[in-house]
Amino acid sequence: MADRAELEELVRLQGERVRSLKQQKASADQIEEEVAKLLKLKAQLGPDESKQKFVLKTPKGTRDYSPKHMAVREKVFDVIIRCFKRHGAEVIDTPVFELKETLTGKYGEDSKLIYDLKDQGGELLSLRYDLTVPFARYLAMNKLTNIKRYHIAKVYRRDNPAMTRGRYREFYQCDFDIAGQFDPMIPDAECLKIMCEILSSLQIGNFLVKVNDRRILDGMFAVCGVPDSKFRTICSSVDKLDKVSWEEVKNEMVGEKGLAPEVADRIGDYVQQHGGVSLVEELLQDPKLSQNKQALEGLGDLKLLFEYLTLFGIDDKISFDLSLARGLDYYTGVIYEAVLLQTPAQAGDEPLGVGSVAAGGRYDGLVGMFDPKGRKVPCVGVSIGVERIFSIVEQRLEALEEKVRTTETQVLVASAQKKLLEERLKLISELWDAGIKAELLYKKNPKLLNQLQYCEETGIPLVAIIGEQELKDGVIKLRSVASREEVDVRREDLVEEIRRRTNKTPCIC
């Protein structure tokens, strides 16, 4: 039997013979006979087992973004970046992967979600898990002790994705951080103000910002009888209270983490409390908590923080919540998390949180972990959960059946008659050189109706129409797509007229 290569060549030659006979318009019987030979050869050849089926899909926990999705994302990014810049932040960037040792031991139980890369050139590498640890490395490496920065980039987590809820393995983070030695709670208050400004501007619904302090948590664990060695793991359990009931959290503490039931009950008495500055005052008088130095410092700072938040006019958005723990190991002081609220089912009930959309806190010891001399640089920051926000905005636009523009084209250069391609090209070049966003159809002689329909489909607001009469008169006919109103504009005035009109055109988002 012929080997596969020979059979493939015979199939190819027989296929060419069949095509040749068809071109020569040979008799049907002759073509049929040769086709039968071709099918017989193909049957002999059989499937190529060396060629595996190639599945076209994105990797688990990732997705592609269409022009429509990207238009929404760019508008959300624009709101966030404008806010960061309004507060005086500079922008930085860091590599998408770091040395593995840079990331190891910074995320507590979540360290298992770090993506490790294969050994390349003698270096053990991992994809960055967040933007905070790379920022701390950047500060230590460049010996910086003072900076206000923002950083927007992708991070990676080997998590179980929940795509419909905006939970991915590859996703963007938008971080704002203030590094430096300053008076207590002023930078912290500004981070909370930024969080509230962004969430209000995006109009994604009512939200609540939960605030706590790691020193209060650690003090609470101490007075409740939690062994020092279990602080971080118990902290991780408490952090699940926004997703599961206290009973489930208690069962995890006792059953999986070996905490005594009575100690868990004492923790439960504290972590189920939430309120405002009055709760801070109440806990400052708590006979056990007030005797713990760490807790006392945390409560004192929270009281000061509420004073600043009141001056910023956002205290009504803030709740002191003792169940907020933020599982990451590097937090040292104030921690916070913004959740969207859904309307309660029964009048008078508490609004329910439906998911975190921003979070952050103070991490004064992280930079010192990288500095050879252990020099600390106090830091506080906020991270906006943009993937969740993108999902919410996209769902809102779909529900409203609102059309999203995927380009920013201001004007289409069109022609009313044939043989005007050269004139269209000359005019569009003038507009591009003047900074006008313009398009034309890639046809020599497009129909005017087709050009106008293209504008309606893509949302282009204006059409600059060239015709033989317009060329003689030295004018361009400028048409508003929405109103269908047309006006003749002198060619030298066209750029200014387009700018004047498009500056008034509202942005669809």
UniProtKB/TrEMBL annotation:
Catalysed reactions listed for this entry: tRNA(His) + L-histidine + ATP = L-histidyl-tRNA(His) + AMP + diphosphate + H(+)
Sample GO molecular function, one term: protein homodimerization activity
Protein name as it appears in the record: Histidine--tRNA ligase, cytoplasmic
Subcellular location: Cytoplasm
Main localization (coarse): cytoplasm
Annotated Aminoacyl-transfer RNA synthetases class-II family profile domain residues: 37-393
Organism: Dipodomys ordii (Ord's kangaroo rat)
E.C. no: 6.1.1.21
